Amino acid sequence: MKFFLCVLGMVMIVEGLPYFAFPERMKFWLQKIVEMPDETLRKFGFIIMLIGLFIVYLGKS
């Protein structure tokens, strides 16, 4: 459980960093994301999940 909380905290730091450092650019990119078709977002999310899974696999090996 401690490891899970540590990982969750790190994810929150990485996710929050762009909003803290570049709020104007994040608003621009969020508007672009809203305009994207659902299928494109779905494909992008799947690719990101696969990359994350691969990184976890490398970290555990």
Short description:
Helix content is 92%, strand content 0%.
Describe this structure in words.
The chain has 61 residues and is an all-alpha fold. It has one domain (2-60). Helix content is 92%, strand content 0%. Helix 1 crosses helix 2. The longest helix is centred in the C-terminal third of the chain and has 23 residues, at 38-60. 0% of the residues are buried. The model has no long low-confidence stretch (mean pLDDT 94).
Write the layout of secondary structure elements.
Elements: H1 2-21, H2 23-35, H3 38-60
Helix pairs in contact: 1-2
Gyration radius over CA: 15 Å
Q: What does the main sheet amount to?
A: none
What is the molecular shape?
flat
Straight-line distance between termini: 21 Å
Count every beta strand, where a strand is a DSSP E run of 2 or more residues: 0
Structural class: mainly alpha
As a percent range, the share of strand residues is: under 5%
Mean pLDDT: 94
| pLDDT < 50 stretches | none
Helix content: over 70%
Order of helices and strands: HHH
Question: Total number of helical segments?
Answer: 3
When the domains are counted, the total is 1
- Give me the oligomer status: single chain
